[in-house]
Amino acid sequence: MEGLKLTNAELLVYIHPSKSGNKLKAICRELSSLLFQYDEIFDGVLLAFDVTVKSKGAKILAGLNPYFGVKVEASLLLFNPKPNSLVEGKIVKISPETIHVIVLGFSAAVVTDIDIREEFKYRMRNGEDCFVSSSHKRHVLKVGTMLRLQVESFDEEVMHIAGSLLPANTGCVKWLEKQSEEALHMDRDDHKRRKIA
Amino acid sequence: MGASEVLTDPSSLYDVGNGEYSDTYTMLTVRNALASVQNGESERYEELVQSMQIIKGADHAVWADLVTILNALSGSVACIDIIHHRKLLSSVFGMSLWDLKPHVMEALVGLLISLAATSGKYLDSCLNMLIGHFVPPRWVIDRLSQRRVIDQKTDVLSQVHGAILKISLLVPLAPSRLLPMLAQQMPKINKKDNVVVMYVENLFKLESSPIGQVGSSMLFMMVMERLRDLDLEIDWDDILQDDSSRGMFDMELEDTMNEGEEVGLFWNLMYQNTSGGNVVFESLDKLMVISFDHLESCNLDGRLDQVFEKLFGAFENFILNTYKSKVSQFLMFYACSLDPENCGVKFASKLMDIFLSSNKPRPTRQVSLSPLCSNVSYSLHNTLVLMTTWLMSAIAYLASYLARGKFLPITYVATMLKRLVDECADYCGACNDDIRPEAHQIFYSGCQAIMYVLCFRMRSILNVPLFRSQLIPLESILMHRLNPLMVCLPSVVAEFLKQAKAGGMFVVSDAFIFDDLLESELSRAFGGPERLDTFFPFDSCLLKSSNSYISPNFIYWSMVRPTYEEDDDDEEDAEIIVNGDEESDEEEEEGDLDYSMNKMSITPKHSFKNKMERDGLLKMPSMIRPSISPQSF
Question: Where is the composition biased (Acidic residues) (chain B) (predicted)?
Answer without folding.
Answer: 577-593
